């Protein structure tokens, strides 16, 4: 049976915030004092997109905005821009994606890839228009590609360890009958 009780939903929301804090903590942890050759994937954005597609009730807009804004502030990105773009992407995917039991994972991954590419380019374009100093294009593209490669692993960990899985058609019908 699906976890649809209000208590379970709030526990999963707290779990999402906890996992996001853990991701930021490990990103900030100084494991290596040498400069990195390749930028790491944006696990925070991948986590938001994966949870928004699989169980949108676990990640309301305000929670996504708060988590991403915290990530912007702690990771020293321009505050609010990436948070807004990821929030818009998540809300777009929540509304536009067909029911998840009908979409194979490859279709989901392709949709996430297109959406992530669009918001990455929008981020770069907006920062360019505002005259904010930016990194070269190559590291940003590498980070986007690394994030897309990491997305299946984020989904796998979310599904196997945290229980964030797609609803079955029977669970969707049961939820609709209760409403």
UniProtKB/TrEMBL annotation:
* The protein, known as: Rod shape-determining protein MreD
Alphabetically sorted, this entry's keywords are: Membrane, Transmembrane, Transmembrane helix
**Membrane spanning segments where?**
7-29, 81-97, 109-131, 137-157
